[in-house]
From TrEMBL:
Entry annotated with the keyword Transmembrane: yes
Membrane-related topology note: Multi-pass membrane protein
Sequence ranges assigned to domain G-protein coupled receptors family 1 profile in this UniProt record: 40-292
UniProt organism field: Danionella cerebrum
UniProt keywords, alphabetically: Cell membrane, G-protein coupled receptor, Membrane, Receptor, Transducer, Transmembrane, Transmembrane helix
Stretches that traverse the bilayer: 20-47, 59-77, 97-121, 142-163, 185-209, 230-249, 269-292
Protein known as: G-protein coupled receptors family 1 profile domain-containing protein
An example Gene Ontology molecular-function term: G protein-coupled receptor activity
Length: 329
């Protein structure tokens, strides 16, 4: 309990109910979503990287998102089995582990949001000007490298505030950087506001292109129409699952976390919503690879080719070369 005064029965019952609900949600995620998300993210990465010749621009971005999803899959069990999410914690981690988990979570969130954003913008470029260098697979691979480096550098400024908020008693220089609201404001701006504006702008341009029928629509170099549905669905799901987390950051930035001046009930509700929003963010690593598996028509062909290659072993499989040519075409 955060407060020293005598607990009211209503507040105590509310705390226990919210703790039980959060524990059940965490257990359901660990039993169902975690293994499925881990398998499908790994499968998405392995299948596409083993068929590099047939990869398209969206495939590269989804592989990038899947790698970030694997990082979230590593962070999720440590957090969900800790004292913040369950009434029966297996372990309690110190400040160093907390900071490490926070670094991995923030970097993964930035990679996922910016990969989704750039996928929207590059898809518009591909729709407007097919077979251009800007939306090519080669260029996309280099862009994804910059995304990871940019995520690390971009989250560094907010990381300083988080670190100093936990070790300020050990480092004198951190005495002036104990403002956690500033760290949340930075993450809110770079991790949600900027991607949301860019995605909205890309969608406006894509819808404008779709309304204007041009001779380029018959170009064989265009991506499959199913990619457009996959793009809309994946971007929508990403923002639905990540918006509650960033809204909690916005609330913390504007009003601050409920403290001693607030009632115990408000503090309990705030902690519950904060943990629930983070649990929804973890679900993005489960939902996106499933959607990619169901909506991308080429994925099943790539998976079959990989299984045949594993079955053949070192010997070259018959008709493999013709299959590659067909998929590329």
């Amino acid at each position: 309990m955060v407060y020293n005064e005598t607990d009211d029965n209503v507040d105590l019952r509310l705390c226990q109910d919210f703790g039980l609900i959060l524990s059940v949600f965490s257990l359901v995620y660990l039993v169902i979503c975690f293994p499925v998300g881990l398998c499908y993210n790994a499968l998405l990465v392995v299948v596409n990287l083993s068929n590099k010749v047939t990869m398209t621009m969206p495939d590269v971005y989804f592989v990038n998102i899947a790698i970030a999803g694997l990082v979230l899959n590593l962070v999720a069990p440590v957090e969900l089995l800790g004292p913040n999410f369950t009434r029966w914690p297996i372990w309690e981690y110190n400040n160093e582990i907390y900071i490490t988990l926070l670094i991995l979570f923030n970097i993964s969130s930035l990679v996922i949001m910016y990969s989704t954003t750039l996928l929207s913008l590059d898809y518009y470029i591909e729709r407007a000007l097919p077979r251009t260098y800007m939306s090519s697979v080669y260029n996309t691979k280099h862009v994804c490298g910059f995304i990871w480096g940019g995520a690390v550098l971009t989250s560094f400024s907010s990381l300083l505030f988080y670190v100093c908020n936990h070790v300020s008693t050990k480092i004198i220089e951190c005495s002036k950087m104990q403002n956690k609201e500033a760290a949340d404001a930075i993450m809110m701006f770079i991790g949600y506001v900027v991607p949301a504006v860019a995605v909205l702008y890309a969608f406006v341009l894509i819808l404008r292109i779709r309304k204007e029928s041009t001779p380029l629509d018959q170009d064989s170099g265009r991506l499959d129409p199913s990619i457009h549905r996959l793009l809309l669905a994946s971007v929508s799901v990403q923002f639905i699952l990540w918006t509650p987390y960033y809204m909690i950051l916005l609330l913390h930035t504007v009003a601050g976390a409920p403290g001693s001046h607030s009632s115990r009930q408000q503090h309990t509700i705030y902690v519950f919503l904060r943990c629930l929003s983070k649990l929804l963010a973890f679900c993005s690593s489960f939902a996106i690879p499933l959607m990619y598996r169901q909506m991308n028509k080429n994925f099943s062909h790539k998976l079959q080719r990989l299984l045949k290659r594993l079955h053949c072993g070192d010997q070259s499989c018959p008709h493999e070369h013709s299959t590659v040519q067909q998929v590329v075409t």
